[in-house]
C-alpha cells in the first residue's frame, strides 16, 4: 500500500531522463491523486539552480512532454510545489549537508519512504550510495532505483552490484528495465496465464520458433557518447530483449507477486545455451547504419551522427538463441533490434508448427502456419493468424485471415507510460517488475561470450542503409533455417 509520505530524490534531476520521463510520470500520477499526500520531489544536480529556477525548468519540461489534454493548472501547481533542488557534485563534498538537512527535517513523518533515483552514470552508483549512508539517509525506509546499464560486462556489473549492495539490502534495490512497465509486456503474463487455450500449445511440440523484434526509427541522436561505448547488444539485448524472452519462455509461477516471477525468469536466463565462438560467428549478425531515408526524410550515417568514423560499435543485432530446457528444446528464439530502421515497432511473434497433415488439395491461396503476433508498441494489441476458407462455390480455397485485438478499441482508457507504473511500484515497495541482481548477472553471463568473440573477430558490423530492416545477413540467419522474419503489415 501507499506510505503516508514520500521524499523522492532524483540524482540527475536536470538530466534528460528526469525531465522527459520521470517528472512527467510523477506529475501524471499526482494528477490522479495517487502520490502519497505528503510527497516532496528533490532534484539533485550540479547546476546552481535555486528552487524557483528548478520549478521553472520542470514546468517547461512538463509542458513539453505531457500530452496537452492532461495538463491542468491545479495539478501543475500542486506538482511544482513539491519540488526542491539541491546543488551537489556527486564526487564533491558540498551539498550533502543541505540534502541531509532536507531529508532529516524533523517535521517529516517518521514512516516517510525515501526513494533515491540514480539517473546518472553507473560508475557513480557506488559512491552516491556510500554518501547517502554517511548522511544517515540509507536506513530501512530508503529505496534506491538504478537505471540500466548496470555495468558494461559481467565483472563491472558485479562490481556495481557489490557497491550498491554494501549499503542497501537487495529488497531496497530497484533495477529498472522500463520494458517491464509497459502495459503490453505485463499483458504477456495475463495472456499466457489467465487463459487456458494457449498454455497447452506453448512448448516445443506445437511452437516452431519465436521472433522478438524491437525496431527503432530514431538514430543515436545526441547520446552518441554513451551509445558508442555500449552498442545495441548492451543497450537493448542484455536487458529489454532478454526480459521479453524470459516472459515468453518462463514456467508459470505459483502466483504473481514477490519473488515468484523473478525466480522463473532467472531459470530461463540460466537455461540459455551459452555461445561458443563458432556459435557467435554463425548465429549473430551485427550491423551499423549508413545514411538513408527514414519516413521520407534524409538522415545521416552513424559515423556522421557520432562525428567520427573510428567506431566499430553495432547499432543493430540479430541473433538466434536457444533455451535448453524441457519445454523449449529445439525451438529457436530469433531476436533483433536496431536503430534507424524503417519504423518503430516492438513485437513478439510465436510461430506454430504446420498442421500434422495437409488435407486440402487445392490450397493455392496457401495455408500459412498459425502465428500469434503480440504488438508491444506502438498500437498495442494481439493478432492471431489463422487459415480460413475463402467464400465461394468452387471448392475449397484457403485464405490467411486474422483475429485482431487492439487495446485502443477494446479499452476506453489509454495505457499509462511504463515509468508511471514503475515509479509507483517503487513508492509502494513492490519489486516484481524490477530486475534482481542474479537476473542482471545471468543476462551478462550469457551476453559476454558474444562481446568477447566480436572483439576478437576480424569481421566488422555490416552496413545497412537507414530506413531498411537491417543488414541482409539478418534475413539469411532465418532463411538458412527455412524461416523468414514476420514483418507486420
Ligand atoms: C533505452 C535505450 O533503454 O530504450 C535506448 O537505452 C532506446 O537506446 C530505448 O532508444 C527504447 O525505449 P522505448 O520505450 O522507446 O522502446
Walk me through what this model shows.
The chain is α/β, with parallel strands linked by helices. The chain folds into two domains: 143 residues, NAD(P)-binding Rossmann-like Domain (Rossmann fold), CATH 3.40.50.720; 300 residues, Dihydrodipicolinate Reductase, domain 2, CATH 3.30.360.10. 36% of the residues lie in helices and 22% in strands. It contains 16 helices and 17 strands. It has a nine-stranded mixed sheet, with helices on both faces. A hairpin with an 8-residue loop joins strand 15 and strand 16. It starts with a strand and ends in a 10-residue tail after the last helix. The mean pLDDT is 95. The site of 6-O-phosphono-beta-D-glucopyranose has 2 residues, from loops.
In short:
The chain has helices at residues 16-31, 51-65, 73-81, 96-103, 125-134, 154-167, 183-193, 224-230, 232-249, 260-271, 277-283, 302-306, 407-410, 418-428, 437-456, 472-479, and strands at 5-11, 38-45, 83-87, 113-118, 142-146, 173-175, 207-215, 284-290, 292-294, 297-299, 316-322, 332-338, 345-352, 371-377, 381-389, 398-406, 462-465. It is α/β, with parallel strands linked by helices and 489 residues long. It is globular and about 80 Å long.
Amino acid at each position: 500500500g501507499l506510505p503516508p509520505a514520500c521524499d523522492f530524490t532524483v540524482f540527475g534531476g536536470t538530466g534528460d531522463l528526469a525531465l522527459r520521463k520521470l517528472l512527467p510520470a510523477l506529475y501524471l500520477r499526482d494528477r490522479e491523486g495517487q502520490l502519497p499526500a505528503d510527497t516532496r520531489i528533490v532534484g539533485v544536480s550540479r547546476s546552481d539552480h535555486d528552487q524557483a529556477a528548478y520549478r521553472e525548468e520542470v514546468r517547461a519540461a512538463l509542458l513539453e512532454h505531457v500530452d496537452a489534454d492532461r495538463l491542468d493548472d491545479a495539478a501543475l501547481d500542486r506538482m511544482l510545489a513539491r519540488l526542491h533542488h539541491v546543488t551537489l557534485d556527486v564526487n564533491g563534498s558540498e551539498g550533502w549537508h543541505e540534502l541531509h538537512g532536507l531529508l532529516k527535517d524533523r517535521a517529516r513523518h517518521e514512516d516517510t519512504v525515501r526513494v533515491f533515483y540514480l539517473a546518472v552514470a553507473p560508475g557513480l552508483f557506488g559512491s552516491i550510495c556510500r554518501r547517502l549512508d554517511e548522511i544517515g539517509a540509507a536506513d530501512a525506509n530508503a529505496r534506491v532505483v538504478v537505471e540500466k546499464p548496470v555495468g558494461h560486462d559481467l565483472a563491472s556489473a558485479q562490481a556495481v552490484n557489490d557497491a550498491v549492495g554494501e549499503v542497501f539490502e537487495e529488497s531496497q534495490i530497484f533495477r529498472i528495465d522500463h520494458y517491464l512497465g509497459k502495459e503490453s509486456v505485463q499483458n504477456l503474463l495475463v495472456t499466457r496465464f489467465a487463459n487456458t487455450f494457449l498454455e497447452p500449445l506453448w512448448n516445443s511440440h506445437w511452437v516452431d520458433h519465436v521472433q522478438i523484434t524491437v525496431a527503432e526509427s530514431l538514430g543515436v541522436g545526441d547520446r552518441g557518447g554513451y551509445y558508442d561505448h555500449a552498442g545495441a547488444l548492451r543497450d537493448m539485448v542484455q536487458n529489454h530483449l532478454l526480459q521479453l524472452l524470459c516472459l515468453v519462455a518462463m514456467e508459470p509461477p505459483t502466483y504473481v507477486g514477490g519473488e515468484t516471477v523473478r525466480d522463473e525468469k532467472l531459470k530461463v536466463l540460466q537455461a540459455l545455451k551459452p555461445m561458443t565462438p563458432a556459435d557467435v560467428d554463425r548465429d549473430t549478425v551485427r550491423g551499423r547504419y549508413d545514411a538513408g531515408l527514414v519516413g521520407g526524410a534524409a538522415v545521416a550515417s552513424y559515423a556522421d551522427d557520432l562525428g567520427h568514423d573510428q567506431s566499430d560499435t553495432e547499432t543493430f543485432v540479430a541473433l538466434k538463441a536457444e533455451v535448453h530446457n524441457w519445454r523449449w528444446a529445439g525451438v529457436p528464439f530469433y531476436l533483433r533490434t536496431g536503430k534507424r530502421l524503417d519504423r518503430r515497432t516492438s513485437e513478439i511473434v510465436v510461430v506454430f508448427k504446420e498442421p500434422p497433415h495437409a488435407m486440402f488439395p487445392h490450397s493455392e491461396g496457401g495455408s500459412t502456419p498459425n502465428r500469434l503476433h503480440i504488438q508491444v508498441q506502438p498500437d498495442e494489441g494481439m493478432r492471431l493468424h489463422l487459415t480460413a476458407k475463402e467464400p465461394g462455390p468452387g471448392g475449397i480455397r484457403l485464405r490467411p485471415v486474422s483475429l485482431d485485438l487492439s487495446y485502443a478499441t477494446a479499452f476506453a482508457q489509454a495505457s499509462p507510460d511504463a515509468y508511471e507504473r514503475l515509479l509507483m511500484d517503487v513508492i509502494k515497495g513492490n519489486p516484481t517488475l524490477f530486475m534482481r541482481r542474479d537476473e542482471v548477472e545471468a543476462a551478462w553471463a550469457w551476453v559476454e561470450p558474444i562481446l568477447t568473440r566480436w572483439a576478437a573477430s576480424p569481421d566488422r558490423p555490416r552496413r545497412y542503409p537507414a530506413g531498411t530492416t537491417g543488414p541482409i545477413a539478418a534475413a539469411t540467419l532465418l532463411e538458412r533455417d527455412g524461416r523468414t522474419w514476420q514483418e507486420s503489415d
